[in-house]
Every structure is written in C-alpha cells, then in structure tokens.
Design brief:
Blueprint: E1 26-27, E2 32-33, E3 36-37, E4 40-44, E5 49-59, E6 62-71, E7 81-91, E8 98-102, E9 106-108, E10 117-121, E11 126-130, E12 139-142, E13 154-155, E14 160-165, E15 170-176, E16 190-197, E17 204-205, E18 208-209, E19 213-215, E20 219-223, E21 229-233, E22 238-243, E23 246-251, E24 257-267, E25 274-281, E26 286-293, E27 309-317, E28 320-327, E29 333-336, E30 340-345, E31 350-355, E32 362-365, E33 370-373, E34 379-385, E35 388-393, E36 406-413, E37 419-426, E38 430-431, E39 437-441, E40 448-454, E41 461-469, E42 483-488, E43 495-500, E44 515-523, E45 529-537, H1 542-553
Length: 554
C-alpha cells in the first residue's frame, strides 16, 4: 500500500498536535470488486434516499439494505431527519435489484433462525420476515400494537416481550413465543401480566419501560398498578409476587441486584417524593437499607453493579446536592460529587469517569477520593483497551458539541503519554480488523463527507471516495472478505457502493476488550429517535450515551 510521506508526523505530546492540520491526500488504490477497481455501485439511489445508519445484512448471495428519504436536521449539526423507509436487495454484484419491503425501519437476524432476515415496521409495531429476492410479501412473525412505541421490549430466550397499553397508566406484559417456521407461521401472544404499570413517560426500549419493568433472557420483573413487584419466569410462564408497596425499581444487567424505593413516603416532595431505598441481592435474598431519598435522583444507579458499585443520588442535604457510592457486596460507602459519571473500571481502585456534561476524562481512586486528568483536551471515548482508552478530540454531544464534530484521535494510556493515531476522525469512524481507521471527515450541512482510511502508525490518510453520506458506512457484514459498504449523494452517481481496501499488515495497537454500555435507538412518543442503553462488546456509541445521560438528568 502506498503512503504519503507528507502525512507522516505529528506523533507526540498532546500540546503539539494543534500545529498539524489536514493535508491534501492521495487516492487510495482499492482492490477489485465485481471485476472493477475502485468502489462498485451495487444499487442506484435518488440523491435524497440514503443508507441512514448502514443497516445491511447478507444472506447467502444476497445483500439487503435499508434506505430512507433524508432531509436536513432542524439545526446545524443535528442528525438528518428520515422517513419513508424501504428495504432493497441485490446480488453480491448488484444483480437483480428488488424492492423487498416498504415501511420497514431496520433489519436484523437471530441466531436461532440463520438465513432469515427480520424487519421492524414501527408504524404497525410488527416484526416481519423478508424474502431476500423480493418475490413474496413480508410475512408477520410477531404481531404488534400500533400504540406501542417501537417493535419490541426485548428478545429473550423464550420469545419476544412487548407491552400493549390499556391506557396511559396500565398495560399488558406479553410474551410472543418463537414460532417453528418464521417464514409461514405467526406467533400466538401470551399475556404474562395484564395489569402492568406503564407511566406516561414510559418509552419502550431494550429491557426498560420507565421505572416499572426490567427484562432478562429468562425472566421479567414488573410492577402492577397497586405497586406489587412480580417475577415472571418465561420458561414455564409462572408469575410470583416478590414485594409489596414498591414505588419504582432498578435492576443490574446480570439480574443479581434489585434496587427499589418503598411506596411509604418519608418526604412528600411533588417532583422527587422520597422513601426508603432498599437493595436486594437476589442470589441470597438479603436486603439492605441504603438511604431515604428519591430513586429519581439517580440515573441508572446499577449500571456498574456488575463491576462492584451502586451509585445513588441523595438529593439535597443541607442545601447541597449529594451522591454516594456503595461497594458491593459489603456496602461500605464513600460520598462523591453528584455529577460524577463513571465509564469503566480499571482495577480494584481506579475508574475512568467524568463529570456529567463534561468533555474531560479523569482517573478516579474512589476510596481515596483522588483523581487525575487523563487527557488535557476535550474528547469523546471510542473504545477501551487493556491499559488505556482511545478518544477523539471533540466536546461532548449534544451540549457543547454536535453529531458531526471531528478531531484528532488519541490512544491515552492510564500511565504514560498520549499517542496520536489519526489526524481527524468523527463519531462514525470505524476500526478495521487490521486496525486501520475508516470513516467520513469534513461532514457538511447535507451530511456529505470524504471517506478516508488512516494508518494509525504513520497517520497517513488516503481518500476512498467523495460525497459519502456520513452515517452510511457499514464494515461488519463483509468483514471476513475485507468488504464494506456506504452510500453516496452525488447526482447521477448516487447509490450504494461496495469497496475493498488493499491488504495491510496488522499494527501493534491493542485490541479493545471491555464490555460497555451501547445504545439502541427507539422512536419516542413524539416520533423522534430516543437512545436506550444496553450491554454489548465492541465499539461504544459514546455520543448517544451522552444524550441518554442528558435526558435522564432533566
């Protein structure tokens, strides 16, 4: 692979990087795809129809793409608005293009049904199976309720969980078991609990409905209208009452820890009614009273429970906001700043975190009450490594920064000096298996950008394509073959393209290994996208997590 000598440099201390700006870069010499050097257009599109978030699936010799009609966001830097979703499919080289479905917002596959592409129709809240050839109509596998917000609450080991509202306050918790044949059969829903509390603000998302339901692969915790907490076991559909007089609840991702607020009020505040906050270890059945406060002061208090802490907001004490961290399982505690937001556990003493809405990251020793700034410039974390983290310079979205910001990327060790690994990236830049960085830069008001590939060892940049729709890149479906896809918005050239980079020796940079909070996007009551956190491995969407924190704090 050829590299530009002028692009080598600017590796060193943080304070020297500002002297290095973008330089003219050479065209990457792409490998052959479908008998053609360079990007190969696999599906023509109208300029205002694009791949929104790269939703692409490969089934055998067919590729399926979700396209949307796009329009500018309401303000500069906003994500584009989207409508009129369509699913298209083609052969691996664009053969036999077919419109597979209209109105389907995203597509996915499940391990239990290899080769079956499912799609979500958010207008009807139905999950449908799709014919990759487009020869048959989409088949309804899981029926939905148009009043539901999104297609599903959670996929479980035993079927699909949904909530069907009766009114603004109460609904039915429903399990739709997996049918034997998703191409011809439709699941028969089973009501687990008919009297589940759903608050008016209860947007659905993975595992969460407001402060009343938490779901897991094989069981569900849910509050009824009278404040009784039930456990529903999905294998045998049995329902068991666990607690009475529960006002609100939270649960850890692994299902071990349950945190709830008792219904009896110790302080009847109209906005933040306070009561006993109790923690139960479901593995032993033991309870502990943590505080008398409102659970509404805490945004995801058990987010880090699997790493050994509970972070509980205490509201105002003597006129000052207070927050406390409890260490599991012994429950010894320390008081911390109420705006402390932790991102990752490094070892038994150290944590990476920041202050809520801050763009700077520190290394905290929670027990000692000390901290040290990790990086002296604002940044957004992209992933963690064994002995450091990787971020790019930008203020957090979406308070001081925007969705389209870009900046240099740095590897920041927990002990040592930062090392620059790219001169410019955005939140849509992806790391390839050989550890090069591929992503859009120079995003304009129409979300058009240059797609570039960067060598993290030399900082050399090379151009892949112009006028690429910034959010459209997908590197996952073709990873084994070195293929990736994206869409272009450029007059008659508009469409979906497939490309392959030339081989590149793996660099010495470290692999990301930690699990973290990622984000599912669901549609809220006002029709706008809403981020909902979930746990997975891979590259976190930290910009979306910032939006979660922002909305949770309001």
């Amino acid at each position: 692979m050829k590299r530009s000598g002028a692009a080598i440099g600017c590796i060193g201390a943080v304070m020297t990087c500002s002297a290095c700006g973008p330089e003219p870069i050479a065209q990457e010499e792409l490998e052959e795809v479908c008998g053609q050097d360079g990007p190969f257009r696999i599906l023509p599109l109208e300029p205002d129809r694009q791949l929104l978030f790269g939703w692409t699936e490969r089934v055998g010799e067919r590729l399926l793409f979700v396209t949307h009609r796009i329009a500018p966001g309401e303000e500069a830097g906003d994500l584009p608005r989207w409508s009129e979703p369509e699913v298209w499919s083609t052969g691996l080289c664009g053969e036999s293009p077919a419109l597979v479905a209209s109105g389907v917002d995203n597509i996915f596959t499940l391990e239990r049904w290899p080769g079956v592409v499912l799609g979500c129709d958010e207008a009807t809240a139905e999950i449908v199976s799709l014919d990759p050839l487009g020869e048959r109509e989409p088949h309804v596998v899981f029926a939905g309720d148009p009043e539901a917000l999104g297609c599903a609450l959670r996929w479980t080991d035993h079927g699909l969980l949904t909530v069907v509202p009766h009114d603004d306050d109460v609904g039915a918790l429903v399990l739709s078991p997996y049918p034997d044949d998703p191409l011809t059969q439709t699941s028969e829903p089973e009501v687990l609990l008919d009297d589940v509390r759903i608050t008016p603000s209860g947007e659905s998302g993975t595992g969460i409905v407001a402060d009343s339901i938490r779901t897991f692969p094989d069981f569900v915790l849910a509050l009824d209208g009278a404040g009784t907490l039930f456990r529903a076991d999905l294998a045998d559909r049995s329902v068991t009452p666990l607690l009475d007089e529960v006002r609100s609840l939270e649960a850890s991702h692994d299902g071990r820890w349950l945190l709830w607020q008792d219904s009896t009020l110790t302080r009847d505040d109209p906005e933040y009614p306070e009561g006993d906050i109790i923690l139960r270890d479901l593995s032993t059945g033991t309870d502990a009273l943590l505080a008398q406060t409102s659970l509404q002061y805490s945004a995801f208090p058990l987010m880090m429970a699997t790493n050994g802490i509970v972070q509980l907001g205490l509201g105002y004490v003597d006129g000052e906001p207070k927050s406390r961290i409890f260490f599991l399982p012994g429950l010894d505690s320390v008081d911390v700043r109420p705006d402390l937001s932790l991102n990752a556990k490094i070892d038994d003493e150290r944590w990476v975190g920041s202050l809520l809405f801050s763009s700077y990251y520190d290394l905290f020793d929670l027990r000692a009450g000390t901290s040290r700034r990790l990086f002296e410039r604002p940044g957004r974390i992209r992933w963690f490594e064994e002995d450091g983290l990787v971020l790019f310079e930008a203020k957090q979205c979406c308070i001081d920064g925007t969705w389209s910001d870009e900046g240099p990327m740095w590897r920041v060790p927990y002990d040592g000096m930062p090392q620059q690994i790219a001169k410019r990236v955005t939140g849509y830049t992806r790391r390839l298996p050989d550890e090069r960085l591929l992503g859009p830069v120079g995003i304009d008001d129409e979300w058009s950008a240059d797609l570039i590939v960067t060598d993290p060892e030399t900082l050399a940049e090379r151009l892949v394509d112009h006028h690429v729709f910034a959010t459209s890149l997908d590197v996952w479906w073709g990873e084994e073959d070195g293929l990736f896809s994206y869409s272009v918005r450029d007059g008659e050239r508009s469409g979906v393209y497939v490309a392959r980079l030339p081989p590149h020796a793996r660099s010495g940079l470290r692999k990301a290994t930690r699990e973290h909070e990622a984000v599912d996007w669901v549609r809220g009551a006002d029709g706008r996208p809403m981020p909902v956190p979930r746990l997975r491995s891979g590259t976190p969407d930290w910009a979306a997590l910032a939006a979660v924190q922002s909305s949770a704090a309001k």
